[in-house]
Amino acid sequence: MAREHYPSEGSIVAGMIWMLVIQVLLFWLPFFGPLIAGVVGGKSAGGIGAALAAVFLPAIIFGVGLFFLGSLLSGIPLIGAVFGLGAVALVLTQVGPLLLGAIIGGIIA
């Protein structure tokens, strides 16, 4: 009997949650933690496009939120902006391996 190919059911939100949880649990693996999180999250997202959205939406929201909250909490906008930009730089260092893993996971799905 021939096996029919059905489009994989996936969820961007589920992919984001898996990526976040696994990335937090594997924080001690500098490159491989985000890579593994990206593969699992990309597979649960259901495709390459959904996996890319699952990678970039949390990174953008988290980076922008840290930028504005750093300015708000410090009381001095310049110090808050420097803190926020430093946090954005840290987020961007994690996006590379996460993106590579998400593409691999999206291809597997």
Condensed summary:
This protein is mostly helical and 109 residues long.
First-to-last CA distance:
22 Å
Number of strands: 0
Q: Which structural class fits the helix and strand makeup?
A: mainly alpha
Q: How much strand? A: under 5%
Main beta sheet, described?
none
- Tally of alpha and pi helices: 4
The overall pLDDT, averaged over residues, is 83
Topology:
Blueprint: H1 12-25, H2 32-45, H3 48-74, H4 77-108
Helix pairs in contact: 1-2, 1-3, 2-3, 2-4, 3-4
Verbal overview:
The chain is mostly helical. The chain contains 4 helices and no strands. The longest helix has 32 residues, at 77-108. The protein is 80% helix and 0% strand. It has one domain (12-108).
Task: Please give a handful of descriptors for the protein shown.
109 residues; mainly alpha; 80% helix
